[in-house]
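The records we work with from here on pair a chain with its fold. The integers have meaning only within a learned vocabulary of local backbone shapes. A complete example follows; check for yourself that the lines match position by position.

:::
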Amino acid sequence: MQMYHLKPLQESRTQATLTSGEGEPPGPHSTTLQPSWQQHMKQAIRDPLELCQQLGLPLSLVPDARDAASSFPLFAPRPFVSRMQHGNPHDPLLRQLLPIRDELAETPEFTADPLAEHASQGAHGLLQKYHGRALLVTTGACAIHCRYCFRRHFPYHESSAVGGQWQPAIDQLAADESIEEVILSGGDPLTLVDSQLEQLVDHLQEIPHLKQIRIHTRLPIMIPSRVCDSLLGWLTNTRLQPIMVIHANHAQELDGEVAEALGRLAEAGLLLLNQSVLLAGVNDNATTLADLSRRLIELRVLPYYLHQLDRVQGAAHFEVSTERGCEIIEQLAARLPGYGVPRYVRESPGHAGKVPITSSLA
């Protein structure tokens, strides 16, 4: 069997790769006066006090936020924070990242590993849950710590792929001819610098049976400057069909800078999909989700999935009932063309794909 050898890479599951100093030459959409995406990562808000002060929020929120952040820290990129409404503790974007005391409650049926991913993980950071696809956990770093994250308890230190140790995963992918698509995930794969990602993709495209590479990321939403010339360079210089799945939950996230970033990806020929999570207090009504779908379509992004919340420990306060979710989907279907209505799904361990959630009236 042919072997596909990678050069050694140095990367920790912290944000070392984000601060490595790898420069992005200014392109037509950049200016030396603007912080780079790596600088935005370095400058992200990590203290609830600073976040509350910047947004003019009651400082009474700080003690509970610090308690909840002790097990899953706050990480709030400033470009995303800038889209939040000043003085509004119920802002839908703020709710996604501000730790609150409800996270500390013990809730039955909410567990550390709701998707049983530990059992699906291979020895080399590969997760193989679905036929024809394999997911590679590339890093533990993210551009935001979503409070509902289903991997908030994931043992990234046990994944040999985290840290750039990708050779065993490459060999495993090469040995399984049933795999046609590789999904880069994490964490967020775009927190890695482009030289690392380009090297990984160069070796993936040497495996004949691979056809697509899919990237799940929030970076174009959180820090739009991540869509830079070097990113577009390796994405468009591969025989593998590039697919990008972004993650926006509310139309307020999609400001002008995000629109420009997504436009660059669309012009480069990427298939752009969006997945959302149905979240109480964020998007649990048809008007909000219809506005999101319309904005996504305007930006050439297909509303792909609306996920039922994964029952991860610490996120029970975000759960919306499936009955309510089905009502919302029915209302969306009455307001939007079919391509604007996301598929309402949940992920269940042991199933061969996402499980559709359908109305009892259907």
